[in-house]
Design a protein that fits this description.
single chain, 8 helices
């Protein structure tokens, strides 16, 4: 009986000793710290380890001291790191990584860090577990987030599928997909705007890539209400983020393989537009065609979008617009599986930015890599 009491007590003392030793190495900032800012669809079902699956999710903080380390669930994958005005860089949490040092030897002052999910995390389900700062240091204030807000709804193009791959024949890998350098992220940075992304490779407005002509059950309209792409147990609260403008870049996968149904495509777009409008009554909504379409498939998508937009405009909703990305021709290279390259994404941003500036009245923009 005495041994049964002493053993748990001994284990508690040992655990407390190691926790104390770890604490001496630095100040642990937990994810529920009120001075951490989150942008994007993040699940706080477990507030000690928030989860996210869509690319482009951001975690921002202002911290004191000379160093900072990032804690994630092992195998959380690839993130882009912005630290003050330094060159952004990528880190990778492998199956054996839970803590990665982002910077050491900084001036002992306030710094800003932004952590961005670079790839599609629906398979790995990344989880954020906090920061580690110098001993005694803290997050003195919360970051001031931009007032402007954009939402991007899309497929592999918006995700950044294979945009860092060397050529069209390169295999798809998480490591060569980087949303940070997509037309969407570049556009948001140009306007100094927040960006919420709901995008998945292969997804369509009524039919996913290679899906049946009659449609796919897990197309974007069916998934759009979820906080996490892979988890239907938690619905997104649309009051958490109200965009000024919504860019919908879908339709490429619906018509990329034969046969497809133009009437179902139009019905899907019409219904989805109504859903987005219901969620965001005041937002401007732009329907875009992607740069991977050409020929009859492109013409079909354009006709569908034009009819849906005209119908909305004629019924009194004048805040619905159309925009076409010119088809890519290979002059700027290709990413994996003929997806847009880094140069193509930059060109797309240069095309989209003036259009958004025109409908939003957002001036004084500058593209920042």
């Amino acid at each position: 009986m005495q041994r049964a009491v002493l053993k748990p007590l001994l284990l508690f003392c040992i655990s407390f000793f190691f926790l104390a030793c770890e604490a001496k190495e630095g100040t642990v900032i937990t994810p529920d710290n009120p001075h951490i800012a989150y942008i994007g669809r993040v699940s706080f079902a477990n507030p000690e380890s928030p989860c996210f699956t869509y690319p482009g999710v951001q975690i921002q903080a202002i911290f004191e001291g000379t160093s900072i380390a990032l804690q994630m669930k092992p195998n959380s994958g690839y993130f882009m790191i912005e630290l003050d005005d330094r060159e952004p860089f990528k880190v990778n949490f492998t199956e054996t990584d839970s803590i990665l040092t982002l910077a050491e030897g900084l001036p002992d002052e306030r710094h800003k860090v932004t952590v961005t999910l670079a790839y599609e995390g629906y398979q790995r389900r990344p989880e954020f577990r906090g920061f580690i700062l110098d001993p005694g240091k803290k997050l003195p204030i919360a970051p001031e987030l931009p007032q402007r807000k954009i939402e991007f709804i899309g497929n592999s193009i918006t995700c950044g599928y294979g945009n860092e791959a060397p050529d069209a024949n390169a295999p798809f890998r998480d490591e060569t997909s980087n949303h940070y350098y997509t037309y969407a992220a570049i556009t948001a940075r140009a306007f100094h705007a927040q960006s919420l992304v709901v995008a998945k490779s292969g997804i369509g407005i009524y039919r996913n890539y290679g899906g049946p002509k009659t449609g796919s059950q897990d197309c974007m309209p069916a998934m759009y209400h979820q906080t996490l792409f892979t988890d239907n147990r938690e619905s997104w609260d649309f009051n958490r983020y109200t965009p000024d403008v919504v860019c919908i870049n879908l339709g490429t996968n619906d018509v990329s393989t034969q046969p497809y149904d133009v009437k179902l495509l139009e019905e899907g777009y019409r219904n989805f537009l109504q859903t987005v409008r219901k969620n965001y009554p005041q937002a401007k909504i732009v329907l875009l065609t992607g740069c991977m379409l050409s020929g009859k498939a492109l013409q079909d998508v354009q006709r569908v979008m034009n009819r849906v937009v005209k119908e909305a405009n004629d019924s009194g909703d004048k805040a619905v617009y159309r925009f076409d990305f010119p088809p890519q021709d290979g002059n700027l290279g290709y990413g994996a599986h003929y997806h847009p390259s880094l140069a193509q994404h930059r060109k797309m941003a240069e095309e989209l930015i003036p259009f958004i500036s025109g409908i939003m009245g957002w001036d004084n923009v500058k593209i920042r890599d």
